[in-house]
């Protein structure tokens, strides 16, 4: 194991102490002349590496609205710890997620590439992974920033939410697992936090399909009982074969409904440490503190070597926590309470880094995977999702700004200027090339969709390399952003928009999320055009009469779309010729088809003997 100068010094003193007795002075006398040599050896092993490779702490919140944070304009919810990060570092005001939903956004974040390149763009109504027992996920052929940094000598850890799959063909192959994607240590929720994990919160996994199966089962059972009664009463001679067929159909319908859906807390609500299921179902109330403790311990264990920690919080996704220390303390109900708890957790992690003397050699980054969920609310709790400020739309509403514009804060005292604000377009996909640069990784790589952020963060560059950015709704190109050279304007062209329901509403309330295909969207010819510099809320479409460059903008974006589409040449197995995969991953298979999303018993992570899965970790000391 490589040792730093600090480690060698500690080893020396420990060796002297362990020598013990009267021989200790002599032992020390013999070793003392060797100490400079030992320190030099330690320095040679890590010297330039430790000095040139900073520690990385990435903190991603789930479903956080950009308008929820004080430094982004909120003056009613207290977020002093996140605000402190911004005051001590660099704040990005046009930081963009590659998708408005968890799975595709996180895939793009991890790989530096748009989600359809790895098969994680949705073709139909299901846009995220729904079961841990499904076979879809981040393909083993993909490369994450964790894998690149691991190859550069970093110790890598992921604590928290994953939501990018587990198994491919059989339970335990872990082909999509974080350990297979560059994280040497994993602790957390391999799926996501969702309503089924908490009794009384209802279900948010294919709720309409659940109702259909339930009703079908009830109809079949009622029909079977009716025919049995008719036969027993002698009114008609009912064929036994018909009764047997109805009985089989009733049992099958009940099994298809009951087993996958009624056991969702057992199937999906689990905790894993590396590849072992340690709690099934998990005790939701203890999750925040356990994740924080694991993140802090990972930093403490790796204080003497370059490390990457991805701290992927389960806040502020529903169901909302009821932590006593924060309950009722905010001005915005349970959502505000959860937001202030999230801020406290961030503060604890920052304090851990600072207390260990790692401040000047640690890049800390704070963001959200996408915008707040405007549509989630009920009469008891009220609003359960976030606030996206002045921006239109939110989670699962396609390319509208409210669903993809997220906080972006970088702190690195001594390297990044405190209080700097960057108004240029940037992307979550930029983290991949930025981390490669910081790790001195010059090895060949596939074409990326992100760019190294360090020139913008340090102030050596004023313009973003993102002249064009492409916004996807599932696999479908939804909108294009153009930042013309020499101009402050940022034009955004919407090729189609989701149909809000009811018409005129602020979201797709009937379904809870907006879909990206068929009758659920409206295609625009000519496209809708906005200038985000003058109209960030996307409320005033431009016309040839109001924008002199109208024709030029549409022509330039059309050419950019053509160039972008040329990087997708191989049709996926969706049967849709418009759905393509990247040239550098020929034949990439869609991970979001029904056969990959739906639950398969033989893929279900389980502690114990399937289907009798169940275990609890002792948390008395947590």
Features:
globular, alpha/beta, 3 domains, 4-stranded antiparallel β-sheet, Alkaline Phosphatase, subunit A, 10-stranded mixed β-sheet, 17% strand, 16 helices, disordered N terminus, 622 residues
Description:
This protein has helices at residues 5-19, 23-31, 35-52, 80-88, 102-111, 145-151, 207-233, 240-262, 264-268, 287-301, 333-355, 401-404, 431-438, 454-458, 550-565, 594-597, and strands at 55-61, 90-96, 155-161, 185-189, 271-273, 276-279, 307-312, 362-368, 377-378, 382-383, 405-411, 420-427, 468-473, 476-482, 491-498, 521-531, 568-571, 580-582, 608-609, 612-613. With 622 residues, it is α/β, with parallel strands linked by helices. The chain folds into three domains: 5-48, no CATH class; 53-194 and 269-613, Alkaline Phosphatase, subunit A (3-Layer(aba) Sandwich); 207-262. β17 (568-571) and β18 (580-582) form a beta hairpin. α10 (287-301) packs parallel to α11 (333-355).
The value of Rg in angstroms is 27 Å
What is the highest CATH level, the class of the largest domain? Alpha Beta
Assess the beta-strand content as a share of residues: 15-25%
Please list the strands of the largest sheet in the order they lie side by side: 6-5-4-3-7-1-8-11-2-12
The helix content is 25-40%
From the coordinates shown, what is the CATH architecture of the largest domain?
3-Layer(aba) Sandwich
The residue-averaged pLDDT reads: 87
As for the number of domains, it is 3
CATH fold group of the largest domain: Alkaline Phosphatase, subunit A
Biggest pleated-sheet summary: 10 strands, mixed
By CATH, the superfamily of the largest domain comes out as Alkaline Phosphatase, subunit A
Shape summary: globular
N- and C-termini, Cα separation: 30 Å
Number of separate helices: 16
Query: How many DSSP-defined strands?
Result: 20
Structural class: alpha/beta
Low-confidence stretches: 1-50, 570-586
């Amino acid at each position: 194991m490589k040792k730093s100068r600090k480690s060698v010094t500690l080893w020396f003193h420990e060796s002297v102490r362990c020598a013990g007795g009267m021989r200790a002075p002599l032992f020390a006398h013999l070793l003392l002349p060797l100490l400079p040599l030992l320190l030099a050896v330690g320095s040679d092993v890590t010297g330039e590496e430790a000095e040139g490779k900073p520690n990385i702490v990435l903190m991603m919140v789930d479903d956080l609205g950009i308008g929820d944070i004080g430094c982004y304009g909120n003056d009613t919810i207290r977020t002093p710890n996140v605000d402190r990060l911004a005051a001590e570092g660099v704040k990005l005001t046009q930081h963009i997620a590659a998708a408005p939903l968890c799975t595709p956004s996180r895939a793009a974040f991890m790989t530096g590439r748009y989600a359809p390149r790895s098969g994680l763009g949705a073709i139909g109504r299901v846009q995220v992974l729904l079961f841990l027992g499904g076979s879809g996920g981040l393909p083993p052929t993909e490369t994450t920033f964790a894998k690149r940094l691991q190859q550069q000598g970093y110790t890598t850890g992921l604590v928290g939410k994953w939501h990018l799959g587990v198994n491919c063909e059989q339970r335990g192959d872990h082909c999509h697992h974080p350990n297979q994607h560059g994280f040497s240590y994993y602790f957390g929720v391999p799926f996501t936090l969702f309503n089924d994990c908490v009794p009384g919160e209802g279900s948010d996994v294919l709720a309409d399909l659940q109702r259909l199966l339930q009703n079908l089962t009830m109809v079949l059972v009622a029909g079977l009982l009716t025919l049995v009664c008719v036969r027993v009463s002698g009114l008609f001679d009912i064929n036994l074969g018909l009764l047997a067929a109805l009985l089989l159909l009733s049992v099958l319908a009940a099994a298809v409904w009951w087993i996958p859906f009624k056991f969702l807390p057992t199937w999906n609500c689990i905790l894993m440490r590396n590849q072992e299921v340690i709690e099934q179902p998990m005790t939701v109330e203890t999750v925040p503190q356990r994740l924080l403790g694991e993140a802090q311990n990972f930093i403490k264990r790796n204080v003497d070597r370059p490390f990457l920690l991805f701290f992927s919080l389960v806040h502020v996704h529903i169901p909302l926590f009821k932590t006593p220390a924060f309950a009722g303390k905010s001005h915005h109900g349970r959502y505000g309470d959860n937001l202030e708890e999230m801020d406290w957790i961030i503060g604890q992690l920052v304090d851990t880094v600072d207390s260990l003397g790692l401040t000047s050699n640690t890049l800390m980054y704070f963001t959200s995977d996408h915008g707040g969920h405007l549509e989630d609310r009920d009469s008891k709790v009220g609003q359960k999702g976030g606030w996206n400020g002045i921006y239109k739309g939110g989670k699962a509403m396609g390319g509208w700004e409210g669903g993809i514009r997220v906080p972006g804060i970088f702190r690195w005292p001594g390297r990044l200027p405190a209080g700097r604000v960057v108004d240029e377009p940037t992307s979550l996909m930029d983290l991949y090339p930025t981390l490669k640069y910081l790790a001195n990784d010059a090895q060949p790589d596939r074409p990326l969709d992100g760019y190294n952020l360090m020139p913008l963060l340090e102030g050596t560059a004023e313009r973003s390399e993102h002249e064009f950015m492409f916004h996807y709704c599932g696999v479908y190109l939804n909108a294009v952003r153009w930042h013309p050279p020499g101009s402050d304007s940022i034009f955004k062209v919407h090729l189609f928009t989701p149909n809000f329901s009811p018409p005129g509403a602020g979201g797709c309330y009937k379904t809870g999320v907006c879909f990206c295909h068929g009758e659920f969207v409206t295609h625009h010819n000519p496209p809708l055009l906005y200038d985000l510099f003058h109209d960030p809320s996307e409320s005033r479409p431009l016309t040839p009469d109001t924008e002199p460059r109208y024709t030029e903008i549409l022509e330039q974006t059309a050419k950019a779309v053509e160039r972008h589409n040329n990087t997708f040449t191989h049709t996926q197995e969706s049967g849709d010729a418009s759905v393509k995969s990247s040239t550098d991953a020929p034949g990439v298979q869609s991970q979001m088809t029904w056969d990959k999303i739906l639950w398969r018993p033989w893929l279900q992570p389980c502690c114990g003997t399937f289907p009798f899965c169940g275990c609890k970790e002792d948390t008395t000391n947590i």
